[in-house]
Task: structure prediction
Amino acid sequence: MLQPAYLFPQCPTSGSTAGNTGQRGTHHFGYKSKGFNIIDDRTFTYWPLCGPFVPANRNDHLQSIPGFQDLQRRFPHLNIGEVIGDAGEGVEEVLRFIYHDLKALRTIAPRRDTEDDKPLTCLQRGYDAQGNPLCLHGYRLSFNGHDYQRRDSKWVCRQRCRHRCQPDITLDLAASPDAQPASTAHDCPFRKLEHSLGYLVRVNLTLPGGNIRLARDLKIGSPTWDLRMGRLSYAESRNACQARRGVKRSPWFGRANSAKASILADILTNILNVARFVREATQAAAHSVSTGT
Result:
């Protein structure tokens, strides 16, 4: 999981008069700390690892790939199974790197486009605004699971047209007079009873048609997706820890010194995690001895 934290450096006061001697400098919006949080679901905690420390005017997604490459160099045995991030990470370069190089699940919030809400665009490209594949008649396909070996996801129609007369995506012919309506669902060859799952679509790196922006390994908006995406709150927890340690407004001047302050705050968070685990284990052991279990 990755999320930036912004640091406000304290510039030294200008001048040498007695009136401003000892005063704090003016706050400036200066640096961005890219943090990589390793989520430990077994202990309901996270382990922050420092990443790129750059000026705040640099785009956030430009630091993702160099940051991951640095993590692989520092921790060669670290197995990254999933990457959680907001829509700022949903650019094609980052999504392609996660799929090909990290071989991890892409739990990245989708980036919106103005064409996503147009029914004609959705029917022509074969998927809706959330990246859910569609059949030729406008019915959304059902997510049938992710294959971790082949690294693709299966989507099937399950013959929804036999139970629903109205498609999920309908074309307004009055608003789009040039559009040609597709054949009716009754003519679909996958409607026959021998095709129990019906129409099948595989999503790997891309969606049908080569789109990467909305291609995901899990169904966006499903309970599983919302549960996994909810762990993005750990990123805000790291930001809160940085503020608690007093480094959101850097106590030192300069980029190098501000980076050291951010790193020390992450190290302190990890150390306190270990101390908490030791305390909880000691209390659990004492409770077991006192109860005779």
